[in-house]
Amino acid sequence: MMIISLAPRRLFMAVISLAASFAPFCSAQAEMSAWAEAEGGRMRLVALAPGADGKIRAALQIEPKPGWITYWREPGNSGIPPQITIAPRSNVALDAIGYPVPKHFYKGGIEDIAYDAPVTLPLSLTASGKAPVVVDATAFIGICRDICVPFQAHLAVTLGPATQSHLEEEAILAAADAALPKPPSADFAVTAHAISPDRKTLSLTLTLPSGGSGAPDIIVTGPSGYAFTKQIGGKRGGATFKTDIAIGKLPKDYDPSGKRWSVLVIDGGKAMETTLAFD
Questions:
Q1: CA atoms of 208 and 272, how far apart (whole Å)
Q2: 45, 92 Cβ separation under 8 angstroms
Q3: What is the mean pLDDT of the chain?
Q4: Separation between Cα atoms, residue 89 and residue 82, nearest integer Å
Q5: What is the pLDDT of residues 75-112, one digit of tens each?
Q6: Which of 26-40, 81-95, 143-157 is the least confident region?
Q7: Other C-beta atoms within 10 Å of 167: how many?
Q8: Which of 1, 70, 171, 266 is the most exposed, fewest CB within 10 Å of its CB?
Q9: Of 1, 39, 5, nearest to 146 (Cα)?
Q10: pLDDT at site 75
Q11: For residue 28, what pLDDT is reported?
Q12: Is the pTM of this model over 0.85?
């Protein structure tokens, strides 16, 4: 079980570093904000002008410095998941955040689900006003090496009518979309799942792409703040893989009935993400 929190050995240094990690307001009269800089990396906002339906393609670009990591939506034993807030005065709503496939890191008993290289989080936005649209965002992330440094920045871009080509921004957004895990397919899917009566294990049966070997990396996310990765008795036979995931302690009085969990499966160079329904 993993609950989002800062590990005690990191918390003291994180508090000390907090004041130094809040970046100034970074705006631009274009489709990319200026970079906001911090001790362990930098980030900026990229966006394209809204379409006729008000939909805006955007992204948060994060570039950790070498040796640093930044976190996935459920960070592991310790860490800070990305948080993005759009100012109400923007008349822009944040509909969804996409997360490219992360990595598992293990160090001294601490497990992180994170990125150790530049990563771009796709953002789905909707504008309710007319052009020009100002996307005024506050991004809050964690970046860690030996310490965790909270990093907050105000990022803004002004978007005019969609009358010009912006090849750099379009390339950034296309690459971000391509890095997302794929939906289930005939050769890569969860074919059965069941939680045990004592809610201690989750049984999974998967169809995996051909050519792989060994156990895939599986990350199950349940209630907010909980992620489960420990496999018990995994067995691969051809394209079929069966395993139990250790669930451990859930929130007090939590009942999974009627809930939806997510599962990310990484097998070699391929990744698939889907929803598990407990009806």
A1: 10
A2: no
A3: 86
A4: 22
A5: 877 788 999 999 988 899 999 999 999 998 887 778 89
A6: 26-40
A7: 7
A8: 171
A9: 39
A10: 87
A11: 42
A12: yes
Pick the closest to residue 98 from 122, 126, 132, 67 (CA basis).
122
The C-alpha atoms of residue 50 and residue 157 are separated, in whole angstroms, by 12
**Integer Cα distance of 116 and 71 in angstroms:** 9
What residue has token string 């950034």?
Answer: 172
Length of the chain: 279
- The span from the CA of 264 to the CA of 52, in Å, is 34
Cα–Cα nearest to 77, from 114, 38, 125:
114
- Name which residue leads in pLDDT, 33 or 25: 33
Q: Which long-range contacts (CB under 8 A, 24 or more apart) does 17-24 make?
A: 17/147, 17/149, 17/150, 18/150, 21/149, 21/150, 21/151, 21/152, 22/151, 22/152, 22/153, 23/151, 23/152, 23/153, 23/154, 24/153, 24/154
268: left (phi over 0), alpha (psi -120 to 50) or beta: left
Query: Distance between CA atoms of 259 and 276, rounded to whole angstroms?
Result: 8
Amino acid letter, 238: G
Question: In this model, does residue 10 exceed pLDDT 80?
Answer: no
User: What kind and span of H or E run contains 190?
Assistant: strand 189-195
Using CA of residue 68, residue 74, residue 77, residue 81, what is the dihedral sign? Answer: positive
Q: What is the pLDDT of residue 89?
A: 87
pLDDT at 31 over 90: no
CA–CA distances in Å: residue 70 to residues 8, 63, 85, 265:
18, 9, 18, 20
Question: What mean pLDDT is predicted for residues 152-160?
Answer: 92
Contact 159, 132 (CB under 8 A): yes
d(CA 114, CA 119): 10
Q: Which residues lie below 8 Å from residue 50, measured CB to CB, with a gap of 6+?
A: 56, 125, 126, 127, 131, 133, 159, 162
Q: Would you state the structure tokens that stand for residue 195, as one six-digit string?
A: 């939680």
| Amino acid type, 117 | A
As a whole number of angstroms, the distance between CA 68 and CA 89 comes to 34
Amino acid at 137: A
